[in-house]
Amino acid sequence: MELRLRLLLAALLCWTCVCCANTDRAIDPSNSRVWGPGVEIPDRATLPARYFFIEPRDAESKKINESQKYDVHIIGQSRFGSCRYRLSQVDRHDGSSIIRYKLAESCSDVSIHVRHNSVHLSGSPFVIPGTLYSEQCYCPQGSVDEWLETVGCPLGDPQIDMDLIPFRAINFSSLRTRMIQQYDKPGSISHCNYVILRNQVHRRCYGQHTGFSKFMDTILLSLARKFTLPDMELFVNLGDWPLVKKGGQSRTTGPFPIFSWCGSDDTFDIVMPTYDITESTLENMGRVMLDMLSIQRRGVPWAEKHPRAFWRGRDARRERLELVALARFYPDLLNASLTNFFFFREEESEFGPRVAHISMHDFFDYRYQINVDGTVAAYRLPYLLAGSSVVLKQDSFYYEHFYRKLVPMRHYIPFEADLSNLLQQIQWARDNDEQAREIRDNANAFINANLLPLDIYCYHALLFKEYAKYIVSPIQVQPGMEKIEQPDEAYHCPCERTTLPRDEL
Ligand SMILES: *[C@@H]1O[C@H](CO)[C@@H](O)[C@H](O)[C@H]1NC(C)=O
Ligand SMILES: *[C@@H]1O[C@H](CO)[C@@H](O)[C@H](O)[C@H]1NC(C)=O
Ligand SMILES: *[C@@H]1O[C@H](CO)[C@@H](O)[C@H](O)[C@H]1NC(C)=O
């Protein structure tokens, strides 16, 4: 839902920030750390953009917090000659950098050279065995279990465990027709029934607004290029609101298994990473430019940020109007304005005027960021947590797939759903600057441990692996389903590892 905002911001984004630091302390190449899937397992973790981190250290192994310029080269062979790639450096606000590279085609005999002032950093050059496949290449490598292990995904997730508790024996032979009838409300609900069989994706959608099925198609096809998906059948809700209410019908028939992008405390929907963060994973260094890596770009240093809270967004919920009203009374604490009126148009004169969108990077000129629900959870939360400010989050019964792992006062500062203690919490952050900054650091670390592109793939893989185990009905392509094809490029690449015949396709 913040997609439009993100596309707007894209243009304003700096990719390859060239930063030349005038460092007091000399960086010691052999003590500096270079790590991440892009240098450790680039042959196994086939990502749209591969990435790794550089943390500069001095001779005493102390972190250097000034930004540095690194010289990164990839040498390798492709069937067109030397390996072609695009590369970008995201200079973070603590001296460390993220390096991303996107291969134009599959490459082999690859080595990755990471230098600072022409000296190799620790571990460089990284010599990569095997082939680095382009993400577009259809080249599934074993089963989902094998893939999860090969790339080192977590073994489980508390949200997945919770979500699947009610679904221990899913029998679509008896559920399918009832589910389609229950959600046959074309004006208000749109959903799709998917069948994955022999690593091919089939679906049939119901409702008027089925365009969002492309997000689901894209992630399923992308997963299928990496490993063999378990055979399974699933229903995906394409709307904002979770559908499977607790109590009522769920009590008598048992809840229906439905996948949604947003969950809530009063529903049984099985939560997936939002289409927003999934899209930014799939289109990393591609069409979408604001993602979990680029958002980490260095901005105004903490000490120079305005010591005020900041918020921009549209009028998707009453509390957002109240936030704007609060900002009028307390401009020293809070800068909040609406960028669009849609739900409360008749109140524009009172809560307007609307202001222009600004780049999310500029949000971080302010030390405190406010996250308030929109129609459901605000899908910007991951971006705010990844930035250089501290987040104040509204209490809410809506959640995304990772909220369960967030801890209030460790990763963000909470405030009441009705905003009643928001001003106190902003004041607390001002009075406890060290702690606020520490919460910011914890949030950044959380993002880098849980929400980077590989983590988004891991979550989907783990979720579908666990879910598929509980289906007891036969997996069969249903009448009226269409087959969703891989992009053409998928088969125009040599693939040496696949275990599946590519052309019983
Ligand atoms: C870097 O660290 C030093 C000492 O730890 C500190 O005084 C300085 O403010 C830091 N600089 C930045 C840009 O954070
Ligand atoms: C699934 O439901 C169908 C139709 O009600 C029934 O015939 C079948 O035995 C069920 N399968 C299992 C494994 O319970
Ligand atoms: C609120 O923020 C915008 C964008 O940074 C700025 O132009 C404006 O002057 C701020 N308003 C107040 C009252 O400080």
Topology:
Elements: H1 3-10, E1 33-35, H2 37-40, E2 50-55, E3 71-78, E4 81-82, E5 85-91, E6 97-103, E7 107-116, E8 119-120, E9 126-132, H3 144-150, H4 158-164, H5 172-182, E10 191-197, E11 200-206, H6 213-226, E12 232-237, H7 249-253, E13 259-260, E14 263-264, E15 270-271, H8 275-282, E16 306-314, H9 318-329, E17 334-340, H10 348-351, H11 360-363, E18 366-371, H12 381-386, E19 390-394, E20 398-399, E21 413-415, H13 422-431, H14 433-450, H15 453-468, E22 482-484
Parallel strand pairs: 13-15, 16-17, 16-18, 18-19, 19-21
Antiparallel strand pairs: 1-2, 2-6, 3-4, 3-7, 5-6, 7-8, 7-9, 10-11, 10-12, 11-22, 14-20
Bound molecules: 2-acetamido-2-deoxy-beta-D-glucopyranose (3 copies).
The site of one 2-acetamido-2-deoxy-beta-D-glucopyranose (NAG) has 2 residues, from loops.
Signal peptide: 1-21
Domain Glycosyl transferase CAP10: 228-474
Pfam family, one: Filamin
Total beta strand runs = 22
Q: Categorize the overall geometry.
A: flat
- Strand portion: 15-25%
Class based on secondary structure composition and strand pairing: alpha+beta
The residue-averaged pLDDT reads 91
Catalytic activity: L-seryl-[EGF-like domain protein] + UDP-alpha-D-glucose = 3-O-(beta-D-glucosyl)-L-seryl-[EGF-like domain protein] + UDP + H(+); L-seryl-[EGF-like domain protein] + UDP-alpha-D-xylose = 3-O-(beta-D-xylosyl)-L-seryl-[EGF-like domain protein] + UDP + H(+)
Protein name: Glycosyl transferase CAP10 domain-containing protein
Filamin repeats: 24-130
Keywords: Endoplasmic reticulum, Glycoprotein, Glycosyltransferase, Signal, Transferase
